[in-house]
Each structure stands twice: as structure tokens, then as C-alpha cells.
Amino acid sequence: ARISVLASGGGSNLQALIDHFAGPAANAGVLTFVASERESAGALDRARSARIATGVVDEPNDSDAILSLLDAAKTDVLVLAGYLKLVPAEVVRAFRGRILNVHPALLPSFGGPGMYGMRIHQAVLDHGATLTGVTVHFVDEHFDRGPIIAQWPVPVLPGDDATVLAARVLRTEHRLLPLCVAAVASGAIVLGEDGRVHGHLDI
Ligand code: GRF
User: Fold this and answer.
1) Which segments of 22-123 are extended strands (E)?
2) Does residue 144's CB lie within 6 angstroms of at least one atom of ligand 1?
């Protein structure tokens, strides 16, 4: 399967995907295209270093432009790896069951519009939660609300601040996301017509 990635930031999740599909999961998929709405995004530098084609999404709300970029790359699976924009509904429809997102909390808690980056981890701390985690889910028309593919717990430790907690959660993202992408790319996990996730992650 040909995998495209949208990323807004430094791209450490993208790097985890690059490493995974260059190694153990090479037969499950190949990363073929990386785009960002920010031409200065570190994720694009990582893609270039890995000799992966890159693009810039000039207008994140322009579904035709996004679809033509993804079609040019012959995209089978689309991964949002730290992508901060809402994917237009037409793109979600065109790629139903083939768009994944990683969120650094246990959805439906601590998710939705406005809940991104350090705000998430600060909210977890402010609520006194003792457990947080990572969610990988199929993307629907709303932020962070698609059917969940997998989750993994991350402990909140005494003395944690948002920076320390974010780093601990990020390490788990780097492990969970590639496994979920490989499972969807290989067909081991599918989004059924019933809107439920079928199959499971072998971890
Ligand atoms: C991570 O915190 C991730 O949880 C969120 O956006 C950030 C992306 O980080 N989705 P990176 O660009 O993958 O390093």
C-alpha cells in the first residue's frame, strides 16, 4: 500500500513511520508522499532526507487541491501525523476507512477542536488524571471523533509537568502509530460498513 502523510510540525511521528516502513513493515506499505500546510515544517525536511516526495497544502480547506495531491501520489492510505487542520469532508469521504490520526490522549477525553499540543497534557494534569495515553483512530468529518483503532496507556507520574508528560506520551505515539498504519495498510484492520472497526492489532 502507498502511504501519504500530512504533518504540521517537527515530524517525529512521521520519522517513526519512515523508520517502520523502511524496516520491519516494508512489505506492508511504502511512504510515498508527505505534505504540510507549513512549507517550513520540519516534517518536510525529514521527508526530503528520506527521499520521499513532498508537497505544500496552500489551502487546507480546498478539498480538490488536497485530493489532486493525494491522487498524484497514488495514495492508498492517508496518515495525519501531527496535522492540525480539519480534513475537508470531501477528502474524508474519498478516503473513508483509509485516513488515520494519532492523538496524544485517551479519546474521547481531552480531544476535539482547540485541544492540541501542550494544552492536552496541561488539561490532563489540571484534572488530576493519573492515566493518559495515545489514541489512533479513523478520521471522520470532526476533530478527533472517528472510530478508534487502538489505544495505549501512559502513566501520569508525580511531579510531571506538561513538557515531561508530552515527551512520555510522544514516545508511545511513535510505537503505536506505525503498528496501526501497517495493520490498516495490510487490511488486518478495516472500517466496516457498520462504522465499527473490524480486526485487531497484534501487540
Ligand atoms: C504530537 O504531540 C502529536 O501527539 C500531535 O502533534 C504532535 C506532532 O508531533 N498529533 P510531531 O510533529 O510528530 O513530532
Assistant:
1) 30-36, 53-56, 77-80, 99-103
2) no
Is the model's pLDDT at 25 over the cut of 90? Answer: no
Residues 92/94/96/101 CA torsion (nearest 10 deg):
-40
Closest listed residue to residue 102, CA positions, set 18, 203, 7: 7
Rounded to whole angstroms, the Cα distance separating 19 from 8 reads 19
CB of 183 sitting under 6 A from ligand 1? no
- Side by side, the strands of the sheet bearing 30-36 are 53-56, 30-36, 2-6, 77-80, 99-103, 131-138, 148-155
The pTM score is: 0.97
Q: Measuring from atom 7 of ligand 1, which residue has the nearest CA?
A: 82
Which ipTM value was assigned to this complex?
0.94
Vertex 179, ends 155 and 28: CA angle to 5°? 175
The residue contributing the CA closest to ligand 1 atom 2 is 117
User: In the chain, helix, strand, coil percent, each to 5?
Assistant: 35, 20, 45
Ligand 1 centroid–CA 60 distance in Å is 18
Tell me which DSSP letter residue 87 carries. P
